Amino acid sequence: MESDGIKRSEEQRLKGKVAIITGGARGIGAATVKLFASNGAYVVVADVLDELGVNLANSIGGRYIHCDVSKEADLESAVKLALAWKGRLDIIFNNAGTSGADGSITNVNMNEVNKIIAVNLFGVVHGIKHAARAMIEGERGGSIICSSSSAAIMGGLASHAYTMSKGAIQSLIKSAACELGQHGIRVNCISPHGVPTEMLISGYRRFLGDIEAEEISKISAKSCSLLSGRGGTTQDVAAAALFLATDEAGFITGHNLVIDGGFTEASTNMIHMYQDTKLVK
Description:
Helix content: 40-55%
Radius of gyration: 20 Å
Number of helices: 8
CATH class of the largest domain: Alpha Beta
């Protein structure tokens, strides 16, 4: 055990690197904060959940900053904190997100749409912009990772506004990768499906009432079609973010890494045709 209380991985895949994780106080963000720290990274936890964020940052020997990603100045401040603390920035995980604006496109509330776009899309733009500036100036390259969603790959998984915001991220990382590659900066995104975070649970409850989190996890597991009985976890997503952050992914950029148990790739509705049958004479 290290003095900051975090059990360190023997591999130390991010040893000495400095990372910012937005939406880092809970869910996927918190799982990634812990995994990055255990692999030797210095982590800035950026969130609006101050109590959770401070406690988590203290537990890993990191730093916390109140950060509403919809406000460009907040992201700029997070980057400045990382630079003031360790003099460099190697990784940013633009993970913060929100959901809502449910219902028909014919009655969609544009105020809710604007709020979702401000966090899910503009928040990512803010993160890429200010992280890239610091990385270019640092002349060490870097890894920029953004959260998209399986909802951006196929319809019917989320509200129109959420789907739109996550789809735009998949286009943005490609154009950003084109520009920033000359500076050794890689830009990728990850697209989880059905991970039972607080946001997914609250979404289910808007439609199904006071359903237990355990039941939602079972529903999620059933939707991950190629891995029977196995649903996605925050740790699965954190592991994908870790890979993209490391030098092992040094030749990967402009890529969307899908973490969905195969849900968007295939259907098991006709799986019986792969079973051996006896020939009937």
